[in-house]
Design brief:
Layout: H1 2-17, H2 19-52, E1 60-64, H3 71-78, E2 82-95, E3 98-107, E4 118-120, E5 128-129, E6 138-142, H4 143-149, E7 156-159, E8 162-172, E9 186-190, H5 194-197, E10 207-213, H6 216-228, E11 234-237, H7 244-282, H8 284-292, H9 297-333, H10 350-373, H11 392-410, H12 414-445, H13 451-462, H14 464-483, H15 486-498, E12 506-511, H16 516-525, E13 534-544, H17 549-554, E14 565-570, E15 578-583, E16 595-599, H18 600-606, E17 613-618, E18 621-633, E19 644-646, E20 657-662, H19 670-678, E21 683-686, H20 688-725, H21 728-740, H22 745-782, H23 791-818, H24 821-827
Parallel strand pairs: 3-9, 6-8, 14-19, 16-18
Antiparallel strand pairs: 1-10, 1-11, 2-3, 2-10, 4-5, 4-8, 6-9, 7-8, 12-20, 12-21, 13-14, 13-17, 13-20, 15-18, 16-19, 17-18
């Protein structure tokens, strides 16, 4: 406690000296960056979890082929959950003398619990949000149904014993089948109209569902209770994919934010190390004086440790406050990123933020502080006496261990961690070698220049170790700034290019083989260009390697897709939006046994690998296909893609339909009206909403990265200031000596400019090299985006290093040149 009281009494004086303020600023930025990203990603992950359940229209869905017990709805409501229910079944719908098969979906008030209904007043007009489901006696019909019946909004249709009025065009419902298997057009009606319609009788083919939504913990508890007493024949669903395109966009957004946060942490660590070193150097005289008056080594160390802890606590509090405020501002800017309000963030990110400050202090601050305990008391009389430096393994081992721990905690993604840390260490090594080389080179050249430049270059050569450290600090600072400015722009531009403005926004499904020529001609006359028709069949996996799905599941494999109908296609050539990652895709003239190419993620889920044999039932014909390749799919292309693609051998003889996708602008929607009237069996699916959502995520993520970049910029400024401040005392003393011997202030300032310009030039070249290499690796390996060398990056790095370090270093150090020489010399 004596050490604590002594440290507390002198903390104000230490803060005024400047070193601890730099240390506090670096820690605050690290904590703020960590907590701001933590708060934001926590809220976004909750929102993504909510959005992922949109394909259920609820957080939890029960479904079965028989009426479900209403007692579950009552029980859920008593537990605070929202509920709704519905019935799906096929039925024939009549309009005067015309009839067609429709997929009737009858729902109760409150549907959907998650997501939203979109409707339009007329065919292919701009959709709007539906405030409620159809009232009893009315229906919402999709465009294909209206086209097949040859009617429009306002017409009456016969549904069983009822005559219902079509009041709106149904454009989108959250739980509509995303896999193009629901080929019958949809008719949405109120569940109260089912009984009077007389459609459902004993033995009717219908699917009953109950929907639940609410607090995640309450929903999870309710689902767990249901599973313990699972009703026979009832399926329980509590999670689903939110769509591969949306998931891909959100995943990339998270990686961009992680990248921005990561470089802020690295820069803060550099600043902490330099500020701690400067603090320890300035406290050597105080440590020697305390030991002269009898203070033991442990007391000296405890005083320094208490100073660090106080700074750490203050910096943590400031950083958490800044991080929370920044997240609130950023969240308001990102409103609308995901449909619905972002859920409130928890306080879980506070602990990693505070832990970041403490780990940085231990890993980067404590090794420098350990020198204080070994300070010789004779330093009171001889200022040239230095304590022995701490062991190299202690210094660098603690720093690397702390940095690795923090970065892995902040970014638990091994690939990103390895690339950034590996690139940082490699760049640091190059900067150290470059700094040493610069020292040797300038030592030979300094005699060939004027007085001012000779003084500046001599400073670089004379302070060889410090100059190398400064080159590393400046170089790392410039590298990450370049990485998050020019390289960031390249990455974001490449990301934006993945969803071009002319990306397909309309899917056409259920195209019959004999309709392709007519549709192709229709689009050609409308100047929509050539369209590609992709075949589609429905199939079911009967066995995997001779085992039934249940037997495969008993072996611990994920066979949930096996035994269920799925969409399949075939192709002689690999689609450009696909890439084979394992195995080989068959040749265009393949004539051997059937083969199948499987999406890599689906193969992992099902436990499939190259060489496995699948018995697939397609229209009653079983084909034994061997898994010959695994693919990754670029869902951002918004083209028709399939988890499983078969080789084309003999597939043409099977019953099939075709699908296609194309981009149609608002002023071209007339061709869609003509299409559905000429080909009423064709269904048109509008995915403009999904496209707009992905583009919105890209735009909002760009804004978020730019916002988080402010933390990186602040960390870079702190690094620059810490590097300059580390030699401020020496500069002040050298300036006093030079001016005492007749040198003007201009000569001293010009020398300082020469020194920092030389350091900045080398740091800028190395930084541009490191940013280019890391940027290309990050773009290709993590974001799957094309990227090459950017000449602007090299120009900006070289000139930026020369000017930024040269000018800012001179401005920051000019106080040393302006200080009265007599005051400095008296102090020594």
């Amino acid at each position: 406690m004596r050490a604590f009281r002594f440290a507390l009494s002198g903390i104000a004086r230490e803060l005024r000296a400047g070193e601890l303020l730099v240390l506090m600023a670096a820690l605050s930025i690290a904590v703020a960056s960590m907590t701001a990203i933590g708060f934001l990603t926590d809220r976004i992950s909750r929102a993504v979890a909510l959005q992922a359940t949109e394909v259920l229209a609820a957080d939890l869905r029960l479904s079965g082929g028989r009426p479900l017990a209403e007692a579950r709805l009552v029980e859920a409501e008593t537990q605070g959950l929202s509920t709704a229910y519905g019935i799906n079944f096929p039925s024939v719908v009549f309009s005067e003398q015309t009839s067609t098969l429709a997929a009737l979906k009858a729902v109760s008030t409150g549907y959907p619990l998650r997501g939203e209904l979109r409707i339009a007043d007329r065919l292919f007009e701009t959709p709007r949000l539906a405030e409620q489901i159809p009232a009893p006696g009315t229906v919402y019909a999709d465009a294909a149904l209206l086209a097949r019946l040859g009617i429009d909004v306002g017409a009456q249709i016969e549904v069983g014993a009822l005559v219902l009025t079509v009041t709106q065009v149904l454009v989108y419902r959250p739980d509509q089948n995303p896999g193009f298997s629901g080929l019958a057009p949809t008719l949405l009606m109120h569940v109260d109209d089912i009984a009077p319609s007389g459609l459902l009788v004993e033995g009717s083919r219908a699917n009953y569902s109950q929907l639940f939504a609410g607090d995640p913990d309450e929903v999870a508890a309710f689902a767990a209770a249901l599973r313990e007493n699972r009703p026979e024949g009832v399926r329980i669903e509590d999670q689903a994919e939110s769509g591969s395109q949306l998931a891909s966009a959100i995943d990339r957004a998270g990686r961009f934010l992680s990248l921005a946060s990561l470089v802020s942490l690295i820069l803060s660590a550099v600043a902490v190390a330099m500020a701690a070193r400067r603090y320890a150097d300035r406290r050597l005289d105080s440590a020697a004086l305390m030991k002269t008056f009898g203070a033991p080594q442990s007391f000296v160390l405890q005083v320094g440790v208490w100073h660090l802890l106080v700074v750490g606590v203050l910096a943590s509090a400031i950083g958490v406050g800044i991080g929370y405020a920044a997240e609130r501002l950023l969240s308001s800017a990102l409103s609308g990123w995901l449909r619905g309000d972002l859920p409130a963030a928890g306080w879980a990110p506070v602990l990693p933020g505070v832990a970041t400050a403490m780990v940085l202090l231990v890993g980067f601050g404590l090794p420098a502080l350990l020198r204080l305990g070994d300070t010789p008391p004779m330093r009171v009389l001889r200022h040239d006496l230095e304590p022995p430096p701490p062991g190299i393994w202690l210094t660098y081992g603690a720093a690397l261990g702390a940095l690795g721990l923090i970065v892995f905690w902040a970014v638990p993604e091994v690939n990103l961690l390895a690339i950034i840390l590996g690139g940082t260490l490699a760049t640091s090594a190059v900067l150290v070698l470059g700094g040493r080389g610069l020292v040797a080179l300038l030592g030979k050249l300094r005699g060939q220049v004027g007085v001012s430049w000779r003084y500046g270059l001599a400073n670089v050569a004379r302070r060889g170790g410090d100059s190398a450290i400064q080159v590393v600090a400046f170089g790392l600072g410039l590298m990450v700034l370049l990485l998050l400015t020019l390289v960031r722009n390249d990455l974001l531009d490449g990301w934006n290019a993945t969803v071009p403005i002319d990306a397909p926004n309309q899917f056409l499904i259920n195209i019959q083989p004999d309709e392709r020529d007519s549709i192709r001609q229709l689009f050609s006359e409308a100047a929509l260009g050539e369209v590609e028709f992709v075949p589609l069949v429905r199939g079911r996996i009967n066995t995997i390697n001779g085992l039934s799905p249940s037997e495969w599941r008993e072996q611990g494999r994920g066979a949930w897709r096996a035994g269920r109908e799925m969409n399949l296609s075939w192709s002689a050539t690999l689609d450009p939006s696909n890439e084979v990652v394992r195995g080989e895709y068959w040749s265009a003239d393949h004539a051997g046994p059937p083969e199948v190419s499987v999406d890599e993620d689906i193969a992992a889920e099902m436990g499939l690998t190259i060489g496995d044999q699948l018995a697939i039932d397609i229209a009653g014909v079983e084909r034994i296909a061997t898994v010959s390749s695994l693919r990754t799919i670029d869902w951002d292309s918004f083209k028709p893609n399939f988890f499983m693609v078969l080789s084309p051998d003999g597939m043409e003889a099977l019953p099939q339909t075709y699908i296609t996708s194309l981009n149609i602008s608002e002023n071209q929607t007339g061709v869609l009206r003509q299409l559905v009237r000429q080909h009423p069996s064709v269904s048109v699916i509008d995915i403009d909403a999904a496209l707009a959502q992905v583009r919105g995520i890209i735009q909002k993520a760009t804004l978020a990265v730019q916002y988080v970049f402010l933390f990186t910029l602040a960390a870079g400024v702190v690094v620059l200031f810490a590097a300059i401040q580390s030699t401020l005392d020496e500069r002040r003393f050298e300036s006093a000596l030079l001016r005492t011997f007749g040198a003007s202030r201009r000569v001293v300032l010009t020398g300082i400019l020469a020194e920092f310009s030389a350091l900045g030039l080398l740091a800028g070249i190395c930084a541009a090299t490191g940013a280019s290499i890391i940027g290309i690796i990050v773009a290709r390996e993590l974001f799957d985006l094309p990227m090459g060398l950017n000449p602007v990056l090299w120009f900006a790095g070289t000139i930026g290093g020369l000017l930024l370090v040269g000018i800012s270093g001179t401005l920051a150090a000019q106080g040393a040149a302006k200080a009265p020489p007599v005051n400095t010399l008296r102090g020594h």
